[in-house]
Amino acid sequence: KYIRESFNWPYKVLIIGGLTGSGKTEILDTLENEGEQVLNLERIANHKGSAFGALGQAEQPSNEHFENLIAQVWLSFNKEKVIWIEDESHSIGSVWIPDPLFAKMRASKVVQIECKHEERIQRLVNDYARFPNEKLEHIIQKISKRLGGQNVKKAIEALEKEDYHVVAEIALAYYDKTYTFGLNTRDKNSIFKLNTENSEITDIKKALKEMKASLF
């Protein structure tokens, strides 16, 4: 009860949003390395959030243990400083973000990361092409209804040819629709876009810190 109540405390939360493959996790890691307060829910959940998110990860914690692990980090934060959290669905793999925390995330301001479509494709290829084709095909089949029969056929043919760019492009088309739907349910006045095209990580860090200062 105490843990759940703590998620209602008036912490300053900023959400890092953006389409799949836009580098949100890398940006969070960089902010954390710079000494910023980061709640990395995917790291705690041992899952990257998508249908492919369990690949290369350890076994997920139970839902209760997940909440306790979140609380360990959450209760260590300085209430006066901003907490950065990646935009997530209510569930991350088999675990669920506690309702009060998820409500806080949905009500918080979002920094929307924007980058080139090709960069996003390449990032997915770098992350997932190292896994066996059999595992990738199994996951594609699991989400076949969402992708559509023609896209599944095209993706599997591309896998056989080791054309991972095509596979990533098909997956992105689906995930973009899903993410955009969720983003459209937010208050448009709470979304602040950050274009990272041709930007070095140092420029992105500087821009994010400037946004943080202006939003709080």
Structural class: alpha/beta
Series of secondary-structure elements, N-terminal to C-terminal: HEHEHHEEEHEHHHHHEH
Radius of gyration: 18 Å
Distance between the termini: 29 Å
Overall mean pLDDT stands at 92
**Strand line-up in the sheet with most strands:** 2-3-1-6-7
Q: Tell me the major beta sheet.
A: 5 strands, parallel
Q: Catalogue the unreliable spans.
A: none
Shape: globular
- Strand fraction equals 5-15%
Ordered list of secondary-structure elements with their pairings:
Blueprint: H1 2-6, E1 12-18, H2 24-33, E2 37-39, H3 41-45, H4 63-74, E3 82-86, E4 91-92, E5 95-96, H5 99-107, E6 109-114, H6 117-128, H7 133-142, H8 144-147, H9 149-160, H10 164-184, E7 191-195, H11 201-215
Parallel strand pairs: 1-3, 1-6, 2-3, 6-7
Antiparallel strand pairs: 4-5
Notes on the structure:
30% of the residues are buried. The chain contains 11 helices and 7 strands. It has helices spanning 2-6, 24-33, 41-45, 63-74, 99-107, 117-128, 133-142, 144-147, 149-160, 164-184, 201-215; strands at 12-18, 37-39, 82-86, 91-92, 95-96, 109-114, 191-195. It is globular and about 55 Å long. Helix content is 53%, strand content 14%. A 5-stranded parallel sheet has the order 2-3-1-6-7, with helices on both faces. The protein has a two-stranded antiparallel ribbon with strand order 4-5. The longest helix is centred in the C-terminal third of the chain and has 21 residues, at 164-184. It is an alpha/beta fold and 216 residues long. The model has no long low-confidence stretch (mean pLDDT 92). It starts with a helix and ends with a helix.
